[in-house]
Amino acid sequence: MTPEDRFLDPQLDGAVAEIRDEAVDPAAIEAVRSRVWLRLASQLVPAAEHIRDCPAFQALIPAFRAGTLPESRSLLVRDHLHTCVACRKVYQGRAVPIASARAAAPAGERSGWLRGHWRWAAVAAAVAAEVVFWVVVSRHGGSDGPASVESINGALYEVTAAGIQPMTNGEALPDNVEIRAAKASDAVVRLRDGSRVELRERSSLVTYASGGDLTLRLSRGSIIVEAAKRRQGHLYVDTDDCRVAVTGTVFGVSSGVKGTRISVIQGEVHVAHNNIDTVLHPGDQAVSSQTLEPESVREDIGWSRNREALLRRLDALRAGLREVRLPALRYSSRLMDRLPADTVLYASIPNLGPYLSEAQLVLDRQLVESPELRAWWAARGDRIAPVLQKLRAASEYLGDEIALVSVAGADGQAHAPVLFAEIKRAGFPEFLKAQGLRMAVESRNGFVVFGLQPEAVAALAPALDRASGGFTGTPFRARIAQAYRQGAGLLVCADLSRLAGARVEKTPLAGLHYLIVEQKEVEDKMEDRATLGFDGANTGIAAWLADPAPMGSLDYVTPDASAVAAFVVRDPQALTAQVQSFVNTNAGPADAETLAGLSASLGGEFALAVDGPIMPVPSWKLVAEVYDPARCQAAIAKLAGHAAKSLRLSQETVDGRVFYSLSYTPENGRPNPLTQAQYTFADGYLIAAPSRALIASALEARATHLSIAHAARFLSLAPRDHFANFSAVLYENLGPAVAPLASLLSTPEQARSWSGLKPALVAAYAAPDEITVAGSSELLGGNLKDLLSGSIAGIAGHALPLGQLFGLQMGGTRQRERAYK
After folding, report:
1. Most distant CA atoms of the chain, gap in Å
2. If DSSP codes are grouped into helix, strand and coil, which group holds residue 386?
């Protein structure tokens, strides 16, 4: 029998297992230990050479392989091969021994020495056996039970020198023997310490014990380990190029030709690779090769039979990451009152030092979770990471609030912005210099002003010497103070009439006086808010939006709607003019008179929704408040009569209700369901949709009070403020509707983006001289621009972005912003 056969001998393993599981009297253990040390003291020869390092062990491997090594040293080499990846590679012929290794003694000399000292060899073997007995019993005796195969899905094989044998559920799991899951198969095994290991198809695993430790040798494939808590020792997973040490942890390991990937789901994992130890935490991932890319932990464990439970653990991790909070809101400022009267820009942020530290941790975890974010960071992280580090270091010198301020000069032109803050630690100018930042700095009386342009710093420097500047009595300051009273997070305030000068008069911003933009955390969610103040009448859509008012049109929209745009207007005639411009109608005098009659019949409240399936015909729904249904219908009939001959208007009475139908059929063409609409009048509203079934659902939603206006999801997204109603509201929940189609109509990357959409809501509140837009999503930016410019097409494109999904253009090409941008 060769040393390798003895290395894999199941009978020896069975004997050791019996010894390990046997309950031993402590007195017997102490007696064995005493006899061992007595024999060692009396019979060991001084010439015995110690094996001190890996080169020495590697020098003994040829003799160990040939079977000529004394039993005592074979035992030591065998134990070392269990725990040392480098020496095991040499033994398997996959690596060259270390050049500095001490040369092993010639086999002949060893044989002669053994023949001349047979009595010592026998004593050494007996001593070694008792040492093994003592080590196994005293250090590894507390196992929880025999290892076994818990379940098999397909086929699991035991691979030995004699061949492969199928294994069955409940069968004992042998140590030092390879087990392998077949193709299209997986299995779960339970180790002696209670740990559970799930094997993916074509995965190969060997388990062996050494002292109090248990090691899994993964030569190929993937496993997921739920490591039990151990009273002593560790659980290791060895691959060709790294070692993983754990206890009480849930993690996955994949080993392939290109390297090893480790993903942590729960607990802490220590990874040793190239003599470097790395600690991984939940959500972290590590790879051993530059040619092996990390991937989402969710994807890395997606093959598991237990994936749902594992994913719940990952979701719990994400919930914990969401607990990272911005600094508390500020309700006053020690900086603002020091500013001069000609301040034209004031941006205030909290000191983000502690937040940046937590945010960096979140970012590191998310880089593992999101391949898209990881790609973006790889292109920009080298530039951003040093900035984050400097910001965290700088925050230690500054107070709780930092302001970015621009002051108008004598010529009326605004200086470049500079930073203004309190000082809580001396040495800030020296810190800036040490960072290589060439900035002008003025610091005294516990405050500091610094910036890139010395003249801009000098313009604000007087604020360091006086507690009250001329800014206190200005209307601009009063509007900023109002924002503080409601709680300030990130705050940007600009006097656009002075900051932009005459240039603003040639843009949709004409008449705009100031802009207040806020971002803050309200009840565990981020909220964005922008207020536009005007000199006199508003412009664009802001000019014809009415004050916040009840919206009965929302009563006809169901809670399952994918998108909704609802608003109230001061003058419906302004809206009909917008519609006329949008559809590009060449209206003559008769049409203008008819449109005026239509406007007079309307009440000024409207809602447009996608409320049902989007295929094959989008389930759009239009609801308009109507004070005079007869006059409204007469105007619609006249407009239809003045239009092309292919536009047909008809009516039908069903169960006492009159339904009207408008259909457009091109000349020499066939009717198209996308160009047909039906509508009816009910309770002071016109309800239009592609089919009567949708109209019926709208009427039912109002009758049962089960509409979106009463839905918890819709209401939970509404901004927190003192307004009871909206002037306009935009809502979308496109994810459920688009997900089944996204994979067919988009690239895989776009499909993930669409299917991951979350509900979002943006609200607008109008007043005679200002309008406020608030929301909790990136919809705010685009809709703010459309409110200013008066673009109905733009608002429709943001609120109902179905055109983007089908490759259509609504008011020009517009692409949806990605969530990770």
Report:
1. 126
2. helix
Side chain identity at 818, as an amino acid letter?
R
How far is it, in rounded angstroms, from Cα 494 to Cα 530?
11
Report the Cα 282 to chain-centroid distance in Å: 14
Q: Taking the model in full, what pTM does it have? A: 0.54
Contacts of residue 158, defined as CB under 8 A and 6 or more positions apart, other chains included, come to 164, 165, 166, 167, 174, 177, 178, 179
Percent helix / strand / coil, the chain, rounded to 5: 40, 25, 35
Element (H, E) at 372: helix 371-395
Distance CA 252, CA 287 (A): 12
Query: CA angle at residue 687 from 682 to 693, to 5 degrees?
Result: 100
Q: Which domains does the chain have, with CATH numbers?
A: 3-140 (no CATH), 148-321 (2.60.120.1440), 336-522 (no CATH), 541-805 (no CATH)
Single-letter code of the amino acid located at 713: R
**3-state SS assignment for residue 304:** coil
Give 471's DSSP letter: G
Say how far apart CA 417 and CA 415 lie, in whole Å.
6
pLDDT along the chain (821 residues), means of 10: 47 60 60 57 47 79 78 78 74 63 39 36 39 38 68 93 91 91 93 91 91 89 90 87 87 92 88 86 84 78 78 62 68 92 89 69 59 52 60 83 87 84 89 83 92 90 88 88 87 80 49 82 77 70 81 94 91 67 50 78 91 83 93 87 74 92 73 80 94 93 92 87 90 73 53 63 88 68 41 38 31 30 24
Label residue 812 left, alpha or beta by phi (over 0 means left) and psi (-120 to 50 means alpha). Answer: left
- Tokens at 131, concatenated: 């040492």
Torsion of CA 531, 532, 537, 542, to 10 degrees: -70
As given in the structure block, the two tokens for residue 649 are: 């208007």
Question: What does the DSSP assignment read for 336-365?
Answer: GGGS-TTEEEEEEEE--HHHHHHHHHHHHH
* 142 Cβ neighbours under 8 A, 6+ residues apart: 231, 232
Q: Are 6 and 161 in contact (CB under 8 A)?
A: no
Number of H helices, E strands in the chain: 27, 33
C-alpha 391/C-alpha 377 separation (Å) is: 18
